[in-house]
Amino acid sequence: MSSVRLHYLNHASLLVEVGGLRMLFDPWLEGTAFSGGWGLRYDNPEARNIAATATHLWISHWHSDHLHAATLAKLAQVNPNMVVLANVSANFSMVERIASFGFRNIRPIGERETLELNGETTCCRYPTAGIDNMLHIASGSWSILNYNDCNLPAKAMQSFRKHMGPIDLLFTNYNHAGKLFDDDDDETRKSQLIDVLDLTVDTLDATRVVPFASSHYYRAEDSVDQNASMLDFDDLECLARDDERYVVLRIGDQATFDAPASALVDARQPLLTQQELEVHDYGPPVPWDELLEDVSVRSKALHGQFLHMGKLAVPDLIVRVSDHDRNLRLSLGKEAREAGAGDNAHIEAHSQAMRIWLARRFGDDTFVAGAHFGIIDPDTSVIERWALVTLLEASHLDPQSCLQYLGARDGRRFLWNRREEILATLLGRRVKAGRMRI
Known about the structure:
Blueprint: E1 4-10, E2 13-18, E3 21-25, E4 32-33, E5 38-40, H1 47-51, E6 56-58, H2 69-78, E7 83-89, E8 92-93, H3 95-100, E9 105-109, E10 114-116, E11 121-128, E12 132-139, E13 142-148, H4 154-164, E14 167-172, H5 186-204, E15 206-211, E16 216-218, H6 233-242, E17 254-259, E18 262-266, H7 288-305, E19 317-321, E20 326-330, E21 337-338, E22 347-349, H8 351-359, H9 363-369, E23 374-375, H10 381-394, H11 399-406, H12 409-416, H13 419-428
Parallel strand pairs: 3-6, 6-7, 7-9, 13-14, 14-15, 19-22
Antiparallel strand pairs: 1-2, 1-17, 2-3, 4-5, 5-16, 7-8, 10-11, 11-12, 12-13, 17-18, 19-20, 20-21, 22-23
Helix pairs in contact: 4-5, 4-13, 7-8, 8-9, 9-10, 11-12
């Protein structure tokens, strides 16, 4: 059995040496993500040079902590000929975006498509939700799964596990990654994160697990308090002392697996220290009339994509626009307008954050995952419904898009490729934005 070597570069970025190739995942190595909503907890000065040695690159999904434009542009300057696996689905294609950075050797990879990477190594991409994906690598007798940010119900995970067979190495995230809609205390949240991680590991039943993709922090002023409830490497090492399946790598560490049960960790010396945590500056306000115009366009578009029935399930949302000190009323299908003096706000946000959410492509994920808002009303059902409908529409999973999928062969395959997830989600009634579904 040949060995596998891992280089943990930062956040969700691993370089995996297996079967004669060097596969790089999701390099976010500098700057911020989600329009300033997230920062990197660590700066790894060696990461850029190591990443540039990759023979292959795979970007799991569109989120900017995975598809990070500044990092990818610099990588393409140094190594434009690495093979980039570009995800292609009925609702999007990464090919043009990847090419825009300057990469020359792009191989499209469809949903559930197996690609031969060299004589002994193949990979298969499995889609989840609208934009997330996992990648299964088979090399010799090795079975490696990059599960990343996938958020699947346990029943769906069990189906994938049966399809893939035994998993030797599992890479999975472990921290929350977006606005939290509950009011649990920090220790309760940490305990819940450990429970979800354990359940994920138990369900996928991997021999060894490398937790990763969670070395971020929240920069939006309304959400910096969430940083205190995130797991750190010390927490993971406590977990690993009682469970030998876990192999904990800190940023900059390397590990060699001569066999699935055998891991030799080469810890970086000296250990990297956390960067100073910064708070995001949104800059000047968006003029009030411009803000109303921008968000009105999206509200009307949402109404159409939900077949003009969205108002039955989505109440009006009142937003306290903090930099204007005014309340904004959002109604599906109607012009945005200033709320009445007696209307209580559900959330608060800067006008620039509101423009990001409702007037920028993929702004929905940026707003929710980047945690660019604060919660005022303890009853979060209204903002959760707005988050859900905007996220579904942005991912082309709204009712109008789904009807179009049903009418086309590629569209029906798109839905069929998500059959395990759709069935488990509907049967388990786990259709909520920002919630773990396991």
